[in-house]
Amino acid sequence: VQLQASGGGLVQPGGSLRLSCAASGFTSDYYNIGWFRQAPGKARERVSCISSDDGTTYYEDSVNGRFTISRDNAKNTVYLQMNSLQPEDTAVYYCALKIGYKAEYDYWGQGTLVTVSS
Questions:
Q1: Please, is 93 exposed, middle or buried when counting C-beta atoms within 10 Å of its C-beta (0-12, 13-18, 19+)?
Q2: Per-residue exposure over 69-79, b if at least 16 CB sit within 10 Å of its own CB, e if not
Q3: Distance CA 82, CA 65 (A)
Q4: Sign (positive/negative) of CA torsion 55, 31, 3, 112?
């Protein structure tokens, strides 16, 4: 199983970025892909996630209304559209995959750095 995250970069406050996570090497009727982030000196937190079946989504409170997660099941790819970015959104963003109905994520991508700064 491989997860390839991309789309990070440097953006000014108020700007937007779209992250992509392409998953490969597995077959399942149900899986969930989540986006996590870790800022320097802080614990990793789950930002958002989406299920493959009915598209149920979750958003952490601080990003709700600014970030939108979406999926393309045909491509096994999940996107995170991030709008109105703020300096506190600066972090390394990771995508992760859990196959089946589990609590923990099994597989992790390599991370992509998002820096929000003027």
A1: buried
A2: bebeeeebbbb
A3: 10
A4: positive
First to last CA, the chain: 37
Average pLDDT over the chain reads 95
Characterise 55 by phi-psi region: left (phi > 0), alpha (psi -120 to 50), beta (else). left
Instruction: For CA atoms 56, 22, 9, 17, give the dihedral sign.
Output: negative
Q: Cα separation of 109 and 61, whole Å?
A: 23
Q: What does the pLDDT look like over 36-65, one tens digit per residue?
A: 999 999 999 999 999 988 889 999 999 999
Tokens of 7: 């789309």
